[in-house]
Each structure stands twice: as C-alpha cells, then as structure tokens.
C-alpha cells in the first residue's frame, strides 16, 4: 500500500460565537483538511490548524509547505512507515508542526482503515471507557462568563476551563472569583492564561488572590520559553502548574522535566506534529511522573477525533479539551458527545464519515 494522491482543502470552520483568548479573537477558525488516497483506493483524512502565536505557521504558509514540500516528500511511501515519513518530513523542512500533523493524522486514519481497526487499537488499545470534556469559557466580562459557566453546569458539565490573560489583572481575579462563587465548590475549575500574564510577579499576584478558589491547575501563565519562571511559580505557591505553549517536542519536554517546572503538560497534535510525536511526549512525561492533557486548537471532528483516540489509549493522559466540534456550527462529521462525555466507536480509522458536501461548502479560495 502506497500513498498515491493528496488533496488539500483550505476551509473556514464557522464558530457558534467568537472564541477569545489572551492573544487573539477568532470569529471563525481557519483550517486545512487533507484527503489522502492510497494506490489500493483507501482514503484517509487529516487536519492542520496553524496558529502564528503557537505553532509559528499561518494558513497560507501551511498550504504552501504542504503543497510544495511535504506532500511531494511522502508520495509513494507506505502510511504504516510512520517513523520514516516523519524523518523524511523533518529532513525536508524544519518545524511546521501543524502541516506535519495533517499528514500524520491522515496516515493513521489510513492504517486503521487498512486493518479494519479503530485508531486507538494501533496506539495502545482502549484504556478509558469514555472521555470527559470540559466546558471552555473564552474571555469576556466577569459576570457574563460566570453565568455562562452556570449554564454549562446546568447542562451537565463538571469541569470549567477559564480563559484569562488580561492586561488588567484585577479583571482576571474578578473573573475567576466570580465564576467560583456562581458554580459552587463541587465544580472543577482550570485557569488558562495563554502566556497573557507574562511575568512571574504578575502571575504570582493573581495566584495569591485566587488561592482560595480551589483551582485544579494554572496553565501557561508565562511566556512560552520561560521554563525557569514556571519553576519559580510552581515553587512559590500551591496551585499546580501546566505548561502548554512551552512544549512542542522532546527538547522542551526534557528541559521541563530536568527543571521540575510543571505538574502537568498540555500536548497538542498541532504543536507536536501529529499522533506519532505526541506519543513520544506522552511516554517521556510518563517516565517523569508528569500527567498529560490532550489539547485542541479548536479543530474540526477530524483533528478532534485524532486527539480523542490518543487520549483514550493512554493511561497517562488524564484530561483533554476536545470540545472543538461543540463550538462549530457546521462541522465535517458527527462525534458522539453526551453532555460532557465523548464516546468513541469501534469503527475503523478515525471512525468518522466526512461529509464531502460540507467540505466543499466550507472550502474557500485564497
């Protein structure tokens, strides 16, 4: 079996409402879907959701890299030869993880379909029965965020992820405190600053004020490359620390482990370059007794299911944020959400029937 053809589709995923984080506002989510075909007629799908602030890629650069560099490199290769494929991609162009993730995911979808196995069976088997998905609050006015959190709890969510990172620290303190007050003490709260607090002093100012809010962890309070700063934060207060933007590949993970800078790691396929390199990070973290979360760049059902298969197969992945499709008004396929739970089927590959009609509807000309 050999890869014979790859089609590239730039699309815009329509969001139900704008998604606001510390560094940007997304009225919709630009994405790239690839359709990979083998010489024996099997079709697999992959997705790239690049972000200049996180992966260092734009939509336009990713399409160009896929079209002119990566796709020509992997044509004629067997999708099962995943390490060879990654080595060839790495030798062709440095970094560009989201572009490589699209190819990686499509290869795994092909592997599952060729063997008539769900993808998770190829990467460890089913460890978890289902995945619990948190409700993600994008940045807004404190009272509006609190009442949105209350509505989410009434719908069955038991974990709320709060996006913060305001230049006005008092606003973030108000957001977190008011949400805790509104939802009560039984709901798990996680806080993600997306690098927005920038410095150790600013971060510690907020964390001191929310010390009594029972925060499960604080995610990426500092700039991505400030590993030592995360260690200082971890040592000077009691809320556990998660690093997200600060870890892409093995080098950063090793630095975090050696520095004892984090309690948790947020692994995203778009940062690591796909399932295969993400698995290496999971095993690296497991050896250091660091628990993992599989994050999302607000991907469609294609990228979200890839992350879900990885999450459900590994004991060290104790959390995820794979609710992207719940934020999209017109997705490429259906995932099995039941309130705050996500279930995976035993269908082969990603287990997703991609709507070619929707793909054409969402495609746009650059």
Automatic annotation (TrEMBL):
The molecular function terms of the Gene Ontology recorded here are: magnesium ion binding; racemase and epimerase activity, acting on amino acids and derivatives
The Gene Ontology biological process annotation of the record reads: peptide metabolic process
Any one Pfam family here would be MR_MLE_C
**What cofactor does its activity depend on?**
Mg(2+)
Keywords associated with the record: Isomerase, Magnesium, Metal-binding
Report residues binding Mg(2+).
192, 219, 244
**What domain of life does the UniProt record list for this protein's source?**
Bacteria
Q: Where is the Mandelate racemase/muconate lactonizing enzyme C-terminal domain?
A: 142-240
> Which InterPro entries does the entry mention?
Dipeptide_epimerase, Enolase-like_C_sf, Enolase-like_N, Enolase_C-like, Mandelate_racemase_C, Mandelate_racemase_N_dom
Per the Swiss-Prot or TrEMBL record, the active site comprises 163, 268
The record's top EC class is isomerase
User: What is the name of the protein in this document?
Assistant: Dipeptide epimerase
Q: Which lineage ranks, top first, belong to the organism behind this chain?
A: Bacteria, Bacillati, Bacillota, Clostridia, Eubacteriales
């Amino acid at each position: 079996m050999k890869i014979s053809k790859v089609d590239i589709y730039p699309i815009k995923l329509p969001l139900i409402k704008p998604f606001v984080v510390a560094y940007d506002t997304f009225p919709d989510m630009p994405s790239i879907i690839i359709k990979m075909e083998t010489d024996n007629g099997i079709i697999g799908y992959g997705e790239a959701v690049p972000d200049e602030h996180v992966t260092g890629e734009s939509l336009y650069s990713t399409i160009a890299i896929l079209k002119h560099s990566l796709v020509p490199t992997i044509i004629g290769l067997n999708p099962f030869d995943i390490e060879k494929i990654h080595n060839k991609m790495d030798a062709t162009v440095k970094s560009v993880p989201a572009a490589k993730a699209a190819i990686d995911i499509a290869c795994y979808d092909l592997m599952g379909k060729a063997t008539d196995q769900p993808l998770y069976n190829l990467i460890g088997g089913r460890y978890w029965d289902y995945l619990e998905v948190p409700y993600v609050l994008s940045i807004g006015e404190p009272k509006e965020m609190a009442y949105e959190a209350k509505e989410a709890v009434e719908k069955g969510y038991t974990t709320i992820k709060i996006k913060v990172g305001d230049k006005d620290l008092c606003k973030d303190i108000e957001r977190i405190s008011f949400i805790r007050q509104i939802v009560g003490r039984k709901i798990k709260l996680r806080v993600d600053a997306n690098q927005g607090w920038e410095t150790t002093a600013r971060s510690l100012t907020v964390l001191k004020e929310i010390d009594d809010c029972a925060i499960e962890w604080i995610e990426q309070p500092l700039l991505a490359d400030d590993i030592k700063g995360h260690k200082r934060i971890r040592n000077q207060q009691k809320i556990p620390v998660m690093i997200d933007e600060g870890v892409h590949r093995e080098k950063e993970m090793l630095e975090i482990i050696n520095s004892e800078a984090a309690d948790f790691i947020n692994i995203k396929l778009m940062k690591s370059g796909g399932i295969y390199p993400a698995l290496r990070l999971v095993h690296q973290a497991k050896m250091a007794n660091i628990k993992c979360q599989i994050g999302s760049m607000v991907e469609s059902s294609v990228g979200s299911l890839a992350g879900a298969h990885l999450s459900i197969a590994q004991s060290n992945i104790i959390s995820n944020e794979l609710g992207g499709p719940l934020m999209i008004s017109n997705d490429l396929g259906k995932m099995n959400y039941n309130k705050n739970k996500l279930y995976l089927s035993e269908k082969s590959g990603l287990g997703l029937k991609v709507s070619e009609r929707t793909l054409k509807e969402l495609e746009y000309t650059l």
